[in-house]
Amino acid sequence: MASALEWKNASAGYGDTIVLENVSLSLTPGESVSIIGRNGVGKTTLLATAMGHTTMRGGEVLLDQQNIATLPPYRRALKGLGFVPQEREIFPSLSVKENLEIAARSGYWNDDRIYALFPRLRERLGNMGNQLSGGEQQMLSIARALMTNPSVLLMDEPTEGLAPVLVETLQDVIGKLRDEGALTIVLVEQNSRVALAFSPRTVVMDKGRIVYDGPSQTLRDDPERLTKLIGVAE
Ligand SMILES: Nc1ncnc2c1ncn2[C@@H]1O[C@H](COP(=O)(O)OP(=O)(O)OP(=O)(O)O)[C@@H](O)[C@H]1O
């Protein structure tokens, strides 16, 4: 099947530093994949390279089979790449409603669908971005990306720093997104339990390369192998 998003022999980094080395990864439309790996192996850089926030040294990034590697980030967003950054980056002096409105583009995701998915945000519509808990900020960051009606959603460690109960809420939300089936989703996740539960396919990165790309079940069934791959038992 044709790919929705593909990194093709992608090498990329920051200035003279190369972080990603010849990475190839392809997702079919509607597919979800989890990316795991220890700190600093290049998971964020993989997403940043799709978004155009790194210096590419070779290879291509294809969205709907079109090479987007030379486009600036905003053009990639307009073409259907949605991004939920690790830092959340919501606007602190805009209300929840304004944070959502500023991103809105017509399509499947509208106010009603967003509030059905995130009832909590409906209750906080008038709150400013800086008057939200960490969990609410994370929800707003995902909601804002959805309001752009992307075809591919890249999420960078959405559960980071959240209390266990909020991790569960968020897991429910991203599970619903996955089950709707229309979105292609790349989830970068430190929490390997969350990552392996989220998608049937998991990619493990190490030192800027892909060292495993296969069923999540295989890693769930073989904790020893998982530990070897990511160096942490969870
Ligand atoms: N803006 C930047 N400028 C220079 N080097 C960077 C920059 N961002 C990341 N790096 C370096 O690139 C390498 C990969 O970092 P990256 O953030 O992609 O890893 P990661 O797997 O997402 O880690 P973590 O799980 O800690 O977020 C690291 O060595 C990091 O120091």
Automatic annotation (TrEMBL):
Instruction: Tell me which domain of life the UniProt entry assigns to the organism this sequence originates from.
Output: Bacteria
SUPFAM superfamilies xrefs: P-loop containing nucleoside triphosphate hydrolases
Keywords, in A-Z order: Amino-acid transport, ATP-binding, Nucleotide-binding, Transport
Which InterPro entries would you find in this protein's record?
Answer: AAA+_ATPase, ABC_transporter-like_ATP-bd, ABC_transporter-like_CS, BCAA_Transport_ATP-bd_LivF, P-loop_NTPase
Pfam families in UniProt: ABC_tran
Q: Which GO terms describe its molecular function?
A: ATP binding; ATP hydrolysis activity; branched-chain amino acid transmembrane transporter activity
GO terms for biological process? L-amino acid transport
Q: What family is this protein classified in?
A: Belongs to the ABC transporter superfamily.
What name does UniProt use for this protein? ABC transporter ATP-binding protein
Organism expressing this protein natively? Pseudorhodoplanes sinuspersici
